[in-house]
Amino acid sequence: MINEGSNVILSVRNLTAEVDGIQILKGLNLEVKAGEIHAIMGPNGSGKSTFSKVLAGHPDYTVTGGEITFQGKNLLELEAEERARSGIFLAFQYPIEIPGVSNLDFLRVAYNSKRKHQGLEELDAFDFDDLVNQKLDIVKMDPAFLSRSLNEGFSGGEKKRNEILQMAMLEPMLGILDETDSGLDIDALKIVSNGVNQLAHAENAIVLITHYQRLLDYITPDYVHVMEGGRILTTGGKELALELEARGYDWVREEEAAEVGAR
């Protein structure tokens, strides 16, 4: 854990949310402090990706109850672009391709939009090129990818590395990685994980959404949360992920049912 204080970056209380009229999140609670890495695990359909999209402000998802506080502010009052400029970053499980928009132009517009929000001057093309080339080494990416259309023709691993490059450029306060490990071979997984580790520091926080223990072999979480049925059932340390790998999720469900029955 990098945390050296008690600065709460994200506080989620009794969050409920739906999509297309179907309730997905059903009373989710989570607190994330500066310097922490949280892993959220759970079976398909448990609400993990819904949670990430709700945090990012995806318009298809409707919050029906609860509250989300980000750096002391009501996150639910902010539009998606305002959340991004304020320091929330979502790395998508399936990054989309945008033909005709160069990777470099996309990065420059996003970066300068955040600088403007912070009251800083925009970087000119030359200074930005120097900066982005420095960041390329974090994900071992060939500079030739900058001139290509955003994600067009990229392999799965290249798309995920490009997401981490975006994160490196934007330096968010809260990085949310939605199954960034899916579809990666072992070499790409190591590169992406190393990039995330380089970007984690005492003043930001990272939430990893994953199905598999293997990502956590390379990125050590401070907390592992098990999510099912739209809420977090249990929380533990990194050893919890190993137990899930060995035993599956049934024992968590059984313990939860026993606790509910005892109330």
Automatic annotation (TrEMBL):
SMART domains hit by this protein: AAA
Domain ABC transporter: 10-254
Membrane-spanning parts: none
MF-aspect GO terms: ATP binding; ATP hydrolysis activity
Gene3D superfamilies: P-loop containing nucleotide triphosphate hydrolases
Pfam family, one: ABC_tran
Keyword match ATP-binding: yes
Keywords noted in UniProt: ATP-binding, Nucleotide-binding
Family label: Belongs to the ABC transporter superfamily. Ycf16 family.
Record's protein name: Fe-S cluster assembly ATPase SufC
Gene that specifies this protein: sufC
